[in-house]
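Dear colleagues,

For the upcoming journal club I promised to circulate an example of a predicted protein-ligand complex. I picked one with 1,6-di-O-phosphono-beta-D-fructofuranose because it came up in last month's discussion. The inputs are reproduced below in full, followed by the predicted structure.
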Amino acid sequence: MNLSPLQKARYQYSPKLPGMLRNGIAEISVKEGSETQSVADQEKIKELFPNTYGKKEITFTKGANTSVAKKHVVGVILSGGQAPGGHNVVSGLYDAIKATNKENELIGFKGGPSGLLEDDYIVFTDEYINEYRNTGGFDIIGSGRTKLETEEQFAVAVETCKKHGITAIVIIGGDDSNTNAGVLAEYMAAHNTGVQVIGCPKTIDGDLKNEDIEISFGFDTATKTYSELIGNIERDCNSAKKYWHFIKVMGRSASHVALECALETQPNICLISEEVAAKKMSLSEIANYIADSVETRAAKGMTFGVCVIPEGVVEFVPEFGSLIAEINELLAGEKANAFNELPTWADKYAFIEKGLTKEAMEVFAILPQSIQQQLFLERDPHGNVQVSLIESEKLFSALVGDVLKARGYKGRYAALHHFFGYEGRCAFPSNFDADYCYSLGYNAFMLIQYGYNGYLSKVSNLAKPAEEWVAGGMPITKMMNIERRHGHDKPVIKKALVELEGKPFKYFEAHREQWAVETCYTFPGAIQYYGPSEVCDITTRTLALEKGE
Ligand code: FBP
């Protein structure tokens, strides 16, 4: 195979484990902490998880390994969107499994949770694993978005486990996948299957985070990748001095990615969806806010700028949310066919005007025509508008143009658009993600070896050097609360949005006025894999600020 020099070098990289896991499997002892409670709705969660609720938090320490020796066959699944470091979770898990007993096996289910249901798998070997060490992507076994949540699916999963003699399953996923891991763990315990279930926290979105999980893996590398690109654009725009760049970054609902990129690159504007919702900002308020920066900078001779936009922002604009709800209603069921049969956009526009309330129509009317049409073209299988596909970077640049025109602005305003998402999800993991992921996988097997079920692999103290990281486990039920989903009360892991009282946002808030009118760009550059630790091993600004570093 023709390998790039970096690929070859990364195969040889030895990920750093937390100090307490470094002396070999025989020297890892366990310390149980206090019993846990779910973050909310304790009685209901306890009732739903009689076998896995209230378990103790776990920390590993250096000391004699007292686990019961037995053969382990472990199944592993990658679930949901790709995130850098997934391969290292698998290789860390594999190494711990094999270091314990050469007879142990690791089975990878292909294509996400559906692989377990369809019994589509591979058995890992040294040769296979070695080709994926410290590389990005999920192509080692693939991933998928099938949800593992019904009793029927669980029964099929049990059959697959029986067939292979599987003693434990590791699910690598985001908040929904780990919620389902918790439900599956309860099922396995309630049915005395003897199969343990362990979760690992993944997602570039950074929204699987709480007092136990300091960061989800992939967030570090993805935000570093986007920040490199944003920094490069800033330098280009400060050189050419002729464009305003509107850059949308991934992150589905939460704005952690946008905020971290802003902290790293100090753009002129960064929208934070959670603030837009809290302040009930309208589209025109947002457009005016950006236009103020454009005008002030132009008055100082700077007819250029950078505006970062979180992927999910439009869903957080209250008036936009109401518009979407009305459009969904307007096209519900058969009504969509009547709409689609109308021959021209003018006919369709008249239909829309008749069907929407005055308030919704006012919002609709100010949208650029391309976005208006997008709202009626892109529907999901349930017939709903796919808000995530709306090109909000184009929407806001157009609205800003309208505002400037209405204000009589005569200066230069030329907008360019970018969307950074897939560019960062499969990058070579940063040293931080390579180390963190390997540790999560290794640690997951320690939880299995000590017989725990329904736990999330937890590695903390992450703002410090890896030597000082703390490895352990937390019952998944501890992170749960009850939320209304599709008309039903469901136990779910609470999704973490950006906290407006949190230190990262506060830091941003304290500096953004200056960034909006001056040119304060910072250039993080490409991820460095080799070199001084203070360049190569540091994690995100978000985590550093949260931990007071
Ligand atoms: P996960 O939550 O599964 O990690 O996925 C996150 C994400 O990358 C979002 O940022 C983005 O909105 C979405 O996946 C895109 O999904 P898809 O890969 O299906 O296009």
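Two points we might discuss: The radius of gyration is 25 Å. Residues 219-240 form the longest helix (22 residues).

See you all on Thursday,
B. R.
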